[in-house]
Amino acid sequence: MASTKANNCSGKTKTFTVLSIDGGGIRGIIPGTLLAFLESKLQELDGPNVRIADYFDIIAGTSTGGLVTAMLTAPNPKDNGRPLFAAKDINDFYLQHTPKIFPQNRDFMTAITSWLDAFSGPKYDGKYLHSLLNSLLGDLTLKQTLTNVVIPAFDIKLLQPVIFYTHDAKENALRNARLADICISTSAAPTYLPPHKFTTRDGNGKTRDFDLIDGAVAANNPTMLAINPLIREIAKENSESGVIEQEGKRILVLSLGTGAPKLEEKYNAAKASEWGLLNWVFNNGSTPIVDIFSDASADVVDLLVSNIFQARNHQKNYLRIQDDNLVGNESSVDIATKENLQRLVEIGKKLLEKPVSRVNLETGRCEAIVGEGTNAEALTKFAELLSEERKLRSTK
């Protein structure tokens, strides 16, 4: 499915398929729930052995979305090259491991110690996460993924984004990092987890150093990073003026958010005008500066991508599923209590029942779309399109 050839033997122009998953810590449970539903629909159409990676040309993920991307695309050496995880297993991974990645304070003194430690280092040491990812992914590298992946990080030494593409890794050994290192890096949210340093080497002994933090600094919503190379490829094939009309028509995009507390309006200018440096970093258990730049990044991308598709009247080719109604602990990236994690599972399930929404280009707000049904119905239709495209390609 990851082939980039333009046409199939039936003569129909190829439709490029893209899956994008936002960052959001423990809120990765929300897209995990949606992906399990999508994969179940694909299995109803094409059999129990198919997986998400069989259907998408590119899967992109930032931070927790990068972890999900790796789980969906890393080959399992014990299962004939099938992915390490089925989509239905993603939430079990979060429920089992996030309480150990983000251990919760159990008594007053531990809470005080943790608060004081925040002045001298990240909130969590990351040791469990590092050990888990190294054990899970071993020495698997980026070029070995079962389809093309895109995972962003940010180099704090060079002060520039680093975007890990499978395509680049196949052409340049210095870009072919271990998946474990990439996942640790894209998840290294400032104030929460420590930056990650590693080095790659090529066959000639040349090396490249990376000093990386969370990909959300660059793109908490990586959809634009995923579709940009496809637009370039379509442009090469269609140098005539009609290329603009082709862009949205030939790309099918599913973009999954991890939820946001927009309607809660927990910050405002009156409060923030009194904040000093400490308040921007620590405020009632939240980190406002991180919340703000990650939400701003995700929304700007959604606005840009929506504009591309709506301007060409191909808006139905772009399905963005996001819940703006999170409140309290459920909007946190790290409150990994049993109760809160289970609450996120329920939010994901209820999101399937909500109507399809699309961003209003004038107001920037997501609005329910009359006549397009629920997110579950939209994902079912999306599964049918993916299945059809896969069958067309298999006739080559």
TrEMBL record:
The EC number(s) this enzyme carries: 3.1.1.-
Intervals of motif DGA/G: 214-216
Record GO terms (molecular function): monoacylglycerol lipase activity; phospholipase activity
Short sequence motif named GXGXXG, residue ranges: 23-28
Alphabetical UniProt keywords: Hydrolase, Lipid degradation, Lipid metabolism, Plant defense
PROSITE patterns for this protein: PNPLA
Pfam families: Patatin (PF01734)
Role summary: Lipolytic acyl hydrolase (LAH).
The protein's name: Patatin
Species: Morus notabilis
